[in-house]
Amino acid sequence: MDKATIRNLKEIKNKRVLIRVDHNVPQDKEGNITDDTRIVGSLDTIRFCLDKGAKVILCSHLGRPKSKDDKQFSLKPVVERLKKYLDGVKITFVNDSVGKEVEKAVSKLNGGEILYLENIRFYKEETANDEGFSRQLANLCDYYVNDAFGAAHRAHSSTEGITRFVPSVAGFLMEREIKILGEAIKKPKRPLTVIFGGAKIADKVAVMDNVLKIADNILVGGGCVYTFIKAQGGEIGNSIVNNDMLDYCKGVIDLAKKQKVNLVLGVDCIAGDKFGADANVRTFETAKIRAGWEGFDIGPKTVELFKNVIAKSGTIIWCGPLGVTEIEKFAGGSKAIAEALAESKAITIAGGGDTAFTVAKFGLADKLTHLSTGGSASLELLEGKVLPGVASLLEIDQII
Asked: Is the pLDDT of residue 378 over 90?
């Protein structure tokens, strides 16, 4: 990674440092945070700036509010959770992202303190990457730090627009994400194995197209596998399928053979007669699922097939759960594969979003090499795309 980071700035004591974090965390119906991985991931950069005596301003989005009246998208609960990790640090929350109230709060900020701005997406100008709004954000700080990898694929005011008006560098989380995911694609320890799961193959097309050029093994399970099976003439019962992707899947199978990529499709599944915790359960071959039954998890034979490949891999990237993990009887396959990755000596990467949440759910987050905090950003990086929130940052040789 040749982008400058917060450590490349020579002096930030008493300087206003605006850190764009990704605290877009999941919450239950009562507003309780159910997974604070992204908050924890931002702590290294925040603590570094506090220890250097900077005046820290935090900016994030939460969900997709339609207006400032969508109070369920307020970042107040996030601030309360952050306080638990930064005991003794003064953290002030302001009910806006720009404007006189914010400017006044910034003027009162001392070194070693934090000012947390309200949800940046309460302003439609944010997602429009409005130049005037970007200038307002830039006027709040002396330096800008992008540590929001999960939003780096968006060219918004707080991720790309602000960089035009203030010196901008990467935070430690951003640096770590780009380095680990980038090396896994460009200079992987081989064999490189990519595991595809999740509900729809259509969501993975660009990633699959890219990894077909570089992977040694591709393992397909979860909802993705049934389109491949149907494309080969298999009977998949009521299982999820993308009928408009059948020809694409046939093409992937042919291309994998030509490029000598070991493409392994799930051979069996745990199926239910309906969706729900009270469903009746049976195991079927994925190509022989009876009508009225739907595949919700990979089966035991598939688990063993996948584990055998995993055991011989040097780098493993996992994109998408392999079953309906929120229902215990359909979570066994994903758990078994997560455990296999945890026991592996390979470089192991959970590709953000639902995959990282799945690994954390099984208590294995610290057993893998890296859990990405970015869902779509991780996928776009694996697709080989340039992320605007990264491209707009200063190069190391541009730091004065």
From this structure: no
Is the separation of the CB atoms in 21 and 146 below 8 Å? no
C-alpha to C-alpha distance for 372 and 100, rounded to whole angstroms: 36
Per-residue pLDDT tens digits for 211-239:
999 999 999 999 999 999 999 999 999 99
Contact (CB, 8 A) for 167 and 394: yes
DSSP class per residue in 310-349: HHT-SEEEEES-SB-TTSGGG-HHHHHHHHHHHH-SSEEE
Work out the widest C-alpha separation in the chain, in whole angstroms.
68
- Structure confidence by residue, pLDDT tens digits, 148-168: 998 999 999 999 999 999 999
Cis-peptide, bond into residue 191, ω within 30° of zero: yes
83, burial (CB in 10 Å: exposed 0-12, middle 13-18, buried 19+): middle
DSSP string, 235-301: EETT----GGGHHHHHHHHHHHHHTT-EEEE--EEEEESSSSTT--EEEEETTEEPTT-EEEEE-HH
Per the document, the length of the chain is: 400
The more confident residue out of 356 and 243 is 243
Radius of gyration of the chain (CA): 23
Of the candidates 240, 362, 229, 355, the one whose C-alpha atom is nearest the C-alpha of residue 302 is 229
Distance CA(185)–CA(189), nearest Å, equals 10
Rounded Cα distance between 23 and 344, Å, is 30
- AA letter at 73: F
The string of DSSP codes covering 63-101 is S--SSTT-GGG-SHHHHHHHHHHSTT--EEEES-SSSHH
pTM of the model: 0.87
